[in-house]
Specification:
The chain has 187 residues and is mostly helical. The chain is built from ten helices and no strands.
């Protein structure tokens, strides 16, 4: 079974749980993460755990709900067990979901980490920063400062993620420099 076929099972389960999320972290964000998975696998050696990769990608934004809502946690565990996950697989998967953004420890976690953070850099990252900044009533200048401060903090884990970051960061830097000039902000 192809990864895109397999992930559909996970996506069908999580889709309704992203309805209440903001525009930067909704189901469309998950679809963009999924669309990057194959490209981010490029250059990796060794076998991948396809189910763990699908789980991490689909449930990427749901860790707080799993952690805080015992009913949803039980529903998630039952769903995974229904797919053939053992108790140990479930526990390992939940641990991986909790840490994948901050301290990934497996190739599957690295891939989803990079698939998420690729949105921080480049055009989409800038658009998201200004969408969030507007929702928080930040000025353009405040949003530029916050975005610029975060642009180089993300460290990519996969070879393909590192290449994508090397392409996206210069674009973001150039765009923000241009915007600063238009706003007449001195660097």
């Amino acid at each position: 079974m192809d990864i895109l076929d397999r992930i559909k099972l996970y996506l069908d389960f999580v889709c309704p749980h992203y309805v209440e999320r903001d525009v930067g972290h909704n189901y469309s964000h998950i679809e963009r993460i999924v669309s990057r998975l194959n490209a981010l696998c490029d250059g990796l050696s060794g076998p991948l755990n396809t189910d763990r990769l699908c789980f991490l990608a689909a449930f990427h934004g749901l860790w707080p709900k799993i952690r805080d809502d015992s009913s949803f946690r039980a529903e998630t565990i039952a769903f995974l067990q229904g797919l053939g996950w053992s108790d140990a697989d479930v526990e390992n998967g939940l641990t991986a979901l909790e840490r994948h953004l901050h301290s990934p420890q497996s190739p599957e976690e690295d891939i989803v980490h990079d698939a998420n953070y690729i949105e921080v850099i480049g055009a989409l990252g800038i658009a998201k920063a200004f969408t969030v900044g507007g929702a928080r009533a930040q000025s353009y200048e405040q949003t530029i400062d916050i975005y610029t401060g975060n642009l180089h903090k993300v460290k990519f884990k996969t070879p393909a993620g590192k290449r994508m970051a090397d392409e996206g960061r210069p674009f973001a830097k150039q765009f923000l420099e241009h915007l600063r000039r238009e706003l007449q902000i001195l660097p």
